[in-house]
Amino acid sequence: MLHSKLSFRWIVFVTLLLLGLDSPASIASSSNRTMQGRSLTSEIIANASKPKAPAKKARSKPRYIPGGRGTPTRTAAGTVRGNMCRGDQPPVALIPQIKNAANEISKVEVGTTVSDRPSFAFYVPPVSQRPTGATQPIRFTLYGPDQKIHWSTQLPGNVSGVVSVNLPKTADPMEVDRVYNWVVRVDCNPNDQTERIEVEGWTMRIAPTVELRKQLAQTAPEEVPALYASFGIWHESISSLMELRRQKPNARELVEDWKALMDSANLKIPVAEGR
């Protein structure tokens, strides 16, 4: 009986060999490997069919085009007044400057804003570089279209770098399509107010277009300065960039953005400033 069972098993084993098959245990193992292979293949196919994340879009640099938006201009000769102060560098009104064919600054552009109470930016050199004795309070004055004082404020004499002054809610809002003149005055001699230097700029409020509003709603904060610059909106371009630099003072890309914006407006302001 035992001989018969062994003979039967031998016959089955030989038959499997003749058919090119393996033992039952090997068949089970091969089946498992096949299933595993199919599972891995299915996983690869599934992963390949998943939508890939879009490649990160390169950030746009803020580049303003002076004189390219049809906004009014003023001659550059009158932007700095006062010759009683001695020194290397006067304050600078941060408004776009326009070069002539000889590559010289000949005009300044009236900076545009879409805000009824915008911020105004100007550069104040360190005390060591200012006209002699110019450590007295700095006065900022905004004149309305009628040349009457619209609003005025006083800053400490020790401020330096890029200074931003905001028109407060207590002041009347600026009117649309009207040009306002603003003046920054640095006194050189506390005993003689005729010894002073003044720099000035001009600003015009315009109504934002539908397209600008639409794109602002879809634009990431770090792209906002470039968007405003592309629409020729100077004040919001520089103020939004200054705000970003205050939030991220060590961000290299924002330093590069500042340089790009200043270069596009022909302004030579230290890269370390603007925050």
Query: Rg from C-alpha positions?
Result: 36 Å
Low-confidence stretches: 10-24
Q: Tell me the structural class.
A: alpha+beta
- In terms of DSSP E residues, the strand content is 15-25%
Gap between N and C termini: 100 Å
What percentage of residues falls in helices of 4 or more residues?
Answer: 25-40%
**Helix and strand element order:** HHEEEEEEEEEEEEHHHH
Shape: globular
Mean of residue pLDDT?
Answer: 77
Largest sheet: 6 strands, mixed
Count up the helices. Answer: 6
- What's the β-strand tally? 12
Question: Quick gist of this model?
Answer:
The protein has 275 residues and is an alpha+beta fold. It is 31% helix and 23% strand.
What this model shows, in words?
Strand 4 (about 95-100) and strand 5 (about 105-110) form a beta hairpin. This protein has helices at about 1-20, 25-50, 210-215, 225-230, 235-245, 250-265; strands spanning about 75, 80, 90-95, 95-100, 105-110, 110-115, 120-125, 140-145, 150-155, 160-165, 180-185, 195-205. Strands 2, 6, 8, 9, 11 and 12 form a 6-stranded mixed beta sheet that branches. A 3-stranded antiparallel beta sheet has the order 1-5-4, with no helix packed on it. A 3-stranded antiparallel beta sheet has the order 3-7-10, with helices on one face. The protein is globular, with a radius of gyration of 36 Å. The longest helix is centred in the N-terminal third of the chain and has 26 residues, at about 25-50. It is an alpha+beta fold and about 280 residues long. The chain contains 6 helices and 12 strands. The N and C termini lie far apart (about 100 Å).
